[in-house]
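Sequence only, no structure available. Ideas?
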Amino acid sequence: MRKSYDDVLDRLSRVAGVRGAMLVDAQAGVAIVAEMAEGIAGPAVAAMAASLVKRAAKASASAKFGALRTIQLEAADGTLIVANHGDIVAVAVTRRDAQLGLVRVEIRNAVEALVR
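Reply:
I predicted one. Tokens follow.
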């Protein structure tokens, strides 16, 4: 059974170290649902995530890497992890001390739950 967007977002948001999570319309670059900590610019993160996925998917196809699954962008204040699922992109914004392996597992589970 397909999980609701809110259920998927809630599970991802509960991972230790996650400061924000959202499901983004990949074409429009806008959040479908979001739960972000204060100080995180949700609309900017949504637009950036969609743009990253579009560009990285093209590059991945050109390099014959196959379909794009996950992107990880590390910055001074944390990490952005984006999982591609066609029309929907799952996004997690983490603190620097987050266990990124766990976040990557949960973000993949999140996009897979959207089709089950």
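The chain has a mean pLDDT of 92.
Hope that gets you unstuck.
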